[in-house]
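Tutorial, part two.
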Amino acid sequence: MKTYTLKTGQKNINNALTSFFHELLTSGAVDALLVPREVKAKTAVVMTLVKEPTELKDINPLAPVAMVNAARLVANLTAVDPGQKIGVVMRSCETRALVELVKLQQASLDQLVIIGIDCLGTFEPLDYRKLVSGGGWNQEQWLEAAASGGETSTQGLTIREACAMCGHVEAGHDQITIGWAGLSPTTGLLIKMDEKMAGQLTGLTETGDSPAREQAIGRIRATRETYKEQQMQAFAARVGNLPALADELAGCLRCYNCRQACPICFCQECVFTSAILMNTPEDYLGWAGLKGAIVMPTDTLLFHLTRINHMGLSCVGCGQCESACPAKLPLSLLFQVAGKKAQDIFGYVPGRDLGETLPQTTYQENELEPR
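Running the prediction step on this input gives:
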């Protein structure tokens, strides 16, 4: 891997990236690209599988919005050997989720070229729509402010809570990285890639690592880790017992949006939609008779506790569950707090290392010692 600068020029970031990805396709480095691309109305940016280079004209990889965690899409593309090399543009939370899916045998890296991009946070899709529809949105200015470690809110809107707590600015597990944190994105991007692959491309100038970039990322990471710890401590104090947790989750509609949005939640059949939990009117009335009253829908607490039990160790904190929740329950914090306890017991960090074995697939004698 060598480090290069990709010149962008004032307000031409996407033009430079379009040329870069165009050459990846036409040089044969990849046969297809999964890349964020604007919809025609410019109000959303969606992951798009591109085979024809001319279809790259509306890409916007640095747009601060993520409609889904792309790890799930990559799993769909690699469930069986696609027979072609696919380049996938991913943020850190997406590459880390993909690592977990590979360990769970739900995805494969064999035919992938992972193109990691820096991420300093994303807005909720509805907030992003408001920003770009309001007439005052300037993505280049936002990127400049965010890159320097400055304010990531704009026009009264802030990035998602999960992003505000995330110190994983740089993507990992990738063959190509696109760095802009700590730099001036409107003048150049830092590209790391294989020297042989880079030799097939134009517009790259070999350069060195940027100490200023590393310092900026360090400051951002420290600030966010501190904020995350504060939020987690406050949440843990607020929901220190099951009744308190039940109150926190009382607004749950049992819509299962969180399950659908989670990149790690991959079961084809969920127990909560199976016949096992299909209750009859007689069941409900019987329980109400025994207790005097029951909350409906029932089993909401059980649903979330089951998801924590299934997903807690592999949760990478992408926050898509909370973004998908119509009741806006604090699911990011719930999984961060519960997941950290389990992860600390096993000394496991989800998405850190492909060679790091999932704790539930191994056994250590000291695992059951009191903590």
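The chain has a mean pLDDT of 90. In part three we will examine how such features are distributed along the chain.
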